[in-house]
Amino acid sequence: xxxxxxxxxxxxxxxxxxxxxxxxxxxxxxxxxxxxxxxxxxxxxxxxxxxxxxxxxxxxxxxxxxxxxxxxxxxxxxxxxxxxxxxxxxxxxxxxxxxxxxxxxxxxxxxxxxxxxxxxxxxxxxxxxxxxxxxxxxxxxxxxxxxxxxxxxxxxxxxxxxxxxxxxxxxxxxxxxxxxxxxxxxxxxxxxxxxxxxxxxxxxxxxxxxxxxxxxxxxxxxxxxxxxxxxxxxxxxxxxxxxxxxxxxxxxxxxxxxxxx
Length: 261
Fold this sequence. Notes:
It contains nine helices and no strands. The protein has helices at residues 3-34, 42-53, 57-80, 88-126, 129-135, 140-179, 183-193, 196-222, 227-260. Helix 4 (88-126) packs across helix 7 (183-193) and helix 4 packs parallel to helix 8.
């Protein structure tokens, strides 16, 4: 491949990325503006809370429980070399509240939710249902994006809080069975060792994750073309883009929160 062909392909990819990024920002701004206009679509919002939040409860909690258990087990083994096994509860609690609980919960739930939204809206796009909404005088963003955004802003932080509790309980199982602590001692040490700021730091990230997950999924879904193959491509693109967004946002948010926290 010649050098000018490489430059041309690179330019096309960059232009496509910038166009998609601009379109995503525009969708976010329109969603924000439509969020405070009537009608409020409360029935659809509650339906989306059920679909996006309640139906994700099992997989989110299972992930959190075993994450907490594995993390506590690894730290118990590592700290035992230095005679510090009694600090397993504190280290696990801080890690769960600040990172593991909210981030891994958002990764698992976000992948499930994002793929579902992209597939649903993509199917509507290729069957011209979104065009039909416009033809009837309604706003697709108001009808389709806003309820999902409000639902995720409520559901994801709630799931993250439950994930924190379940993750700490998973670590407690290891602390009791492997380290030899009593359940009361383990939980008491955890409560004494963590601070409110640890909880708030993790929860603050989930709101940013929720906004990004919904915007990426709705953006890819509503721009789908090419029939069933296009729906599959949009779903795959949503999952990959969503994961990249979560990890990048987590890094920068952690850096910011450590500076100002």
